[in-house]
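Dear colleague,

Following up on Tuesday's group meeting, I ran the structure prediction for the two-component complex that the binding team flagged. I've pasted the input sequences exactly as they went in, so you can double-check that nothing got truncated or mislabelled along the way. The C-alpha cells for the whole assembly follow below. Feel free to forward this to whoever is handling the docking comparison.

Inputs:
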Amino acid sequence: MDKARFYREEIGKALEGALPAPSPQDPQGLVAEAMRYSLLCGGKRVRPVLTLAFCELCGGEPLGALPFACAVEMVHTYSLIHDDMPCMDDDAMRRGRPTNHRVYGEAMALLAGDGLLTMAFETALGFSGDPQAALDGARLLAQCAGAKGMVGGQCIDLQSDGGKMSVELLQAMDKGKTVALIHAACGMGCIAAGAQEGQLLAAGRYAHGLGMAFQLRDDILDVEGSAEKLGKETGMDAARSKQNYVSLLGLEEAKRLVERYTQEAVRALEGFPGDKGFLRDFALGLASREN
Amino acid sequence: MDKARFYREEIGKALEGALPAPSPQDPQGLVAEAMRYSLLCGGKRVRPVLTLAFCELCGGEPLGALPFACAVEMVHTYSLIHDDMPCMDDDAMRRGRPTNHRVYGEAMALLAGDGLLTMAFETALGFSGDPQAALDGARLLAQCAGAKGMVGGQCIDLQSDGGKMSVELLQAMDKGKTVALIHAACGMGCIAAGAQEGQLLAAGRYAHGLGMAFQLRDDILDVEGSAEKLGKETGMDAARSKQNYVSLLGLEEAKRLVERYTQEAVRALEGFPGDKGFLRDFALGLASREN
C-alpha cells in the first residue's frame, strides 16, 4: 500500500474514533450525526496527510501526530460547512453529496460546524506526547484558524463579493483561506516530532508554496474542470461574479504560477535531513490534480 | 470598590487586550470589529467572574486566571451571536443593542462567532502558569462547550422547537446550554489555582446549582421581567411556543426551584477552606436578579 493511502486510512479510523458514537435515541444525537456526515465523507485529507508526513520527515512516529492531524481536518470540515451555508456561498453540493445544511437544515449545520471546531481543540489537546508540544500545536492551530488566519481570509472574501479585486488582495485572501490551515497542518507535524525552530520555518515555506499552488489549481479547475470529477459545480466564481486568479491573470499565467509555487514548496524541503520524496511528490501531485 | 466590580473591570481590560486592535484599513478588520462589538458590550460577565473567584477560593492569584476567564466569556459571546442568527432564534436585540447580524449581516456574524470561538482557545492556551494546567483548562473548556455540552444543549433546543417537552428533556437541554459553560468557568478557576480533584468536583456541584437557578430565573424573567431592564424582548418563549420551566411547572414552582438550586450551590462551597462569602452572595444575587 502506498504511504498516502496508509496515512488516509489511519486518519479515517482516528476521525471515526474521535466522533461521539451515533445514538439516535440521544436527544443530542442529531448534531453528532451532522458532524459525522461531513467529517467522514472521504475528501482528499490533504491537511492531515501533511501533518503525518511532516512528523515523519522530522524523525517522529507519524501516527503519534494523529490527534493533530484529526484536529486540522475537523477545522477544515467546519469551515466548509459554514462556508456552504446560504448566508455565505449557498452551495448545494460538496464532495459529491448534498451540503450539510441541505440535509440537516441551516441551524443544525451551524451547530455541526461549531461542534467540529470545538472538537478540533479537544482532539489536539489529547496529543499524548510532551504537554508543551500539545500546547504549542493547539495554539498554532488557533492562530492559523482565527481572525488573523482562515477566518480573516473569509472576511476578505465576503467584503470583495462581486466587487473588483486586486491580485494583492486575492493573495491576502488565499493566505488566510487556504495557506493558513495548511501551515497549521505542516507545523503541527513538526511540533509533534519535537522539531527545531528552523524546521518549523521551512515547513511554513512549504505550506505557503503548496497552499498557493493548491488554490490556483482550484481556480483553474473551476474553469477547466469536470463537475463529475470534482463532486461540486464548476464555473461558480464566474456565476457569482467573483474574481479569481484565472479571471485576473488569465489561464496561462495561473498555470505558470502553480508551477512556480510548487517549486517553492519543493525547495523548502531542502533543509530537512530525511527522505523528502513523499512530500515532493505530494506537492507535484496536487499541482496537476483533476479534483 | 467591591470585588465583583474589580473583577469585571480587570476582565474588561483583558478582553480588550486580547482582541486584535481595530484597523479599518486592514481587509480583515471588519470581522475583528464585529467580534469586538459583541465581546465588549458590557454584559454581566457571570462566567469570567466565577473563574476568578474560584481561583481565589482555591488559594490562587485570581488575576492569573484571566486567560481562562476571557476564554469562557469569548465562548459565551460566540454562542450568543450564533444563537441570535435568523436560522436559530432570529433575535433583534441583545444586551440593549441590535444583535450582531443586524449590524454586520449574517455572514459576518457567522464569522465573528467562529473567530471568537477560535480566539477562546488561543487565549486559554496563553495561560502562563503550569503548561499542564493550561492544557487541562483548555480541554475542560472544549468538553463543556462541545457536542456533549453547550452545542449538545442547543441541539436539543432546536429539535424541541414548538413541540412538546418534558421536564427531563428541559433539564438535559439546560445542562447543556447553561450549566456546561458555567461548569467550565468554575472548573477553570480551580485548575488555574492548582486545586485538587475533590475541589474540582465541588466546583462542578456549585456550577450545577447556580446554572440551573440561573436558567430558571431567566425563564421567570421572560414572563415577569421588564424588557427595558433586560435589554432584550420578553415573552419570547411564549411567542415562539417554546416550553420552559414556567410554562411546564408554573411560576410558583419555578421560583421554589430557583431557591432549591441556589441552596445546592451554596452547600457545595462547604468543602473549600477559604472565604466563601463572595461566591455565596454571588449565587444569592443571581437568584433574585432583575436582568
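The CA atoms of residues 26 and 211 of chain A lie 40 Å apart.

Cheers,
M.
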